[in-house]
Amino acid sequence: MVRAVKDTFTQEQLLFVVSPPRSGSTLLQRMLGSHTAIGTHPEPHIITPLAHLGFDGIVDAAPYDHINSAEAIKLFVDHLPNKEHDYYDSLRSYTDGLYGKMLRTMPEKSVFMDKTPAYALVLPFLARLYPSAKYVVLTRHPLAVFSSFANSFFEGDWAAAHAFNPLVERYVPAMAKFLRDKPAPYVHVSYETLVRQPEAELERVFGYLGLEHQPEAANYGDRFDGSKQGPGDPIGVHQHSRPVAASVEKWAEELAHDEKKLALARRMIDSVSDDDLATWGTPRAELWKPLESAGGGKPPKRVVNSYTLQRRVFLALRKDIDKRPHGKLLRKVKYYCDVLLRE
Fold this sequence. Notes:
Elements: E1 14-18, H1 25-32, E2 38-42, H2 47-51, H3 66-78, H4 84-104, E3 111-115, H5 123-129, E4 134-139, H6 142-153, H7 158-164, H8 167-181, E5 186-190, H9 191-196, H10 198-209, H11 220-223, H12 250-256, H13 259-270, H14 274-280, H15 284-287, H16 289-292, H17 306-320, H18 328-341
Parallel strand pairs: 1-3, 1-4, 2-3, 4-5
């Protein structure tokens, strides 16, 4: 069992939850964070900026000459005594310092959990940075993920949601590669199994972490300290005090009632390889089975609360702002819209 250390922080004390957005990751975070040994904080996004410094060659755009910076960093690293090893070791000193200091604000905790869905798109970098950390990889039926995304932030408009962020095509291949290649230790959790058998799944995860099984952690509403505010999408997690399985196949009801959405869904799934779908946990031969018995129920309702309304306002502002006279205030609004809407 991992023990708390006052003045040092090691990779073995770090836990990453890897998932796409709208996959139940906030639910899982609250369940795991209900364990007496696990501390956490709302989506810190510490890793993503480091992954895009240029050394790993994945910078698309930046407010500086990112091509020149990338080449300069690579040249600099090439002249370090231990080259790439020194580069990652230096980055790790920075992140260890942040994670360790945060963990010290939680004196009763021995493990720090970082749940930031954007990390799923920089997994090769993350695994090189923290090869000995622990990883919980959370997957959910790809179309359930996208249905939740579209209904939460785009009023059920699948075409608009897909144009904004093709979640399935981005996250499924990236996470499937991590699951296949195993660059770091992980345990794979299915959302559908988690909400149907929460205590059993928690026992499996806590066993992987080397922690005492605390089945009462499934009742996160009674145990998790949700007072910290930050990035994340707590849309449904506040509605219950423990997992519920009522929405597992709502996506199928939605597609059964809408041919256009179904056609888009088929195009999305067709663009993902058989290998990636099978690794994810939804083989192509089984992926559509819930649709065969759907049609008799109601499709999911569009989510309306302060969080989703805020996201929709940001989307509207960002969409129309370039048509309006430019000024400092509008540019600042656009900047914050861009920041808050990134996945």
